[in-house]
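Entry 14. Ran structure prediction on the chain below.
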Amino acid sequence: MNDKELDKWFDEQRDCWDIAEPMDGHQARFLKKLNSTREKETKVRALDWWKPLLVAASIVAIVSLIMLTPGESRGKELAAVSPEMEQTQDFFTQAIEKELYTLRQEKNPLTESLIQDALEQLNILEQDYDQLKEDLAHSGEDRRVIHAMISNFQARIDLLNQVLDEIDELKTLNTKNHEDKLL
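Output, structure tokens:
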């Protein structure tokens, strides 16, 4: 569209446009309304930061109530006593996991009942350890409880080592019996 066509179009549309002047005080009323909506927006924005804070405070309160409920004492880990005890617990936990992995690798029809029995005994020792954790929380880090917890770890490792030794003996006996039959 060139300038002449555009001017012609504006001339044709002149009657369609509202060319009346606004009433007196229109600009003042408009600015007053505009400022009142801005004040409302700033009030709303000022309160917006409280909402997440209230939600976070509610969550913290609920979690605190759940964790501090006296009927549901979860006990205290050995690692909470001192950094040395944390290292001790980590060492024993890793050793037990390693022995359990080795034990599960040895599972076959010949050793299945032996391994199952060992896992049941291990479960009993873990239940005893859970009780010791609760005792530690109630005793205030009594040395006897700490010693009992360490002894429990050692008993679990000894049990797993004993079962692995028995499995090795079974393998050896089984191999010797077959060799004697062949000769």
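The mean pLDDT is 78. Will compare against last week's run tomorrow.
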